[in-house]
Design goal:
Length: 325
């Protein structure tokens, strides 16, 4: 059997079943971070993510400072996704000899800026050579008050499905990069959204103080795929109103110029790093942070999404997000 036959998430299930789950209240494979309870009133959060040349970035296109920023930010985002406070990072590189010291210095400058911005220290890592491509692996550690990490499995029937920010900008930015389109005005904004993601740490921390927020994750593969993770973990289905998906002015303008469908970027495109959370309707009414309600959860077929609105019901149509393999 080839890897493409089971896909990225099938492979992760295979890995999970080949290892023993953590003891007690430990949360292991399957959420944005592992959660390790301590005995001082806090839980430790750990997440790790790789960025591989030609899979996650094109070396000649992304400026090294922005690659550094992005490598840190996409990992910090997983701590934000649990409602946690990030505190430390570990940085590992497999470096082709062709890279210059100036390149690495610029990368480190961007990496450090992201760590400074969100209050992390760089505490270690690993450095090796690579025969060809650049690979970067970052591990981030954080904490939250005991038992307050928001898991994908905590959603309840009736919860509203909400997101922070706008969706699709990053994926449209990637399309502009890949098609070599001109970068001016709104197009350059979208490329920057792809290269300079903003982890929603403050929003995640605020959301974790609201007991009505039951489940949360960050949108790294597109809401169409990421929402299904919450639905499967919580054994629920959802109705999503396509007319309510938040789209930026920049996305709408670039899409109308190029004849693209903005919803495809918003639903299937990854790397927005906005927060996707579920909340009971009473709590939502008092929520202070800016957000958009995009749908609601129901008991029913686990993992099923009905896409409604925008002129027509799309109940038979299944949007897909990004997956490796
Ligand atoms: P995210 O997009 O939030 O970074 P992923 O989709 O990469 O999450 O991973 C989903 C879950 O699978 C996470 O809990 C992650 O730790 C786990 N996981 C992914 N790859 C591996 C692996 N090779 N070994 C163990 N766990 C893994
Ligand atoms: Mg995540």
């Amino acid at each position: 059997m080839k890897l493409s036959d089971i896909g990225e998430f099938g492979l992760i299930s295979e890995i999970a079943s080949a290892s023993s789950p953590g003891p007690g209240r430990v949360v292991g494979i399957g959420d944005d971070c592992a959660v390790m309870p301590r005995n001082d009133g806090f839980d430790t959060l750990v997440s790790t993510d790789m960025l591989v040349e030609d899979v996650h970035f094109i070396l000649d296109d992304i400026p090294p400072e922005l690659l550094g920023w992005k490598s840190a930010s996409v990992n910090i985002s997983d701590i934000a996704a649990m409602g946690g406070q990030p505190e430390a990072a570990f940085l590992s590189f497999a470096l082709p000899e062709t890279l210059s010291l100036d390149y690495i210095r610029a990368f480190l400058d961007g990496f450090r800026k992201a760590l400074d911005c969100f209050g992390l220290s760089l505490l270690g890592g690993d450095t090796t050579s690579s025969p060809d491509k650049l690979s970067i692996s970052v591990t981030v550690i954080g904490h939250c008050k005991s038992g307050t990490a928001r898991l994908r499995s905590g959603a309840l029937p009736g919860d509203l499905v909400c997101v922070t920010g706008c969706l699709g900008d990053s994926a449209a930015g990637l399309r502009i990069i890949l098609e070599g389109l001109p970068r001016s005005g709104p197009s350059s904004e979208l490329v920057l959204r792809h290269y300079r993601p903003q982890p929603r740490v403050n929003q995640g921390l605020l959301l974790s103080t609201c007991p009505g927020v039951h489940a949360m994750m960050d949108i790294s593969d597109g809401i169409a795929s990421d929402l299904v993770h919450i639905l499967k973990a919580s054994h629920l289905s959802a109705r999503i109103d396509l007319g309510n998906i938040p789209l930026s002015g920049e996305l709408l303008s670039v899409c109308s110029e190029n004849g693209w469908n903005p919803l495809e970027f918003a639903l299937e495109g990854g790397e927005d790093y906005e927060l996707l959370f579920t909340i009971d309707s009473q709590s939502e009414a008092g929520l202070a942070i800016p957000h958009t309600i995009v749908g609601q959860l129901f008991s029913g077929e686990s993992g099923k999404v009905d896409w409604l609105g925008n002129g027509a019901d799309h109940t038979d149509f299944q949007y897909k997000g990004y997956t490796h393999f």
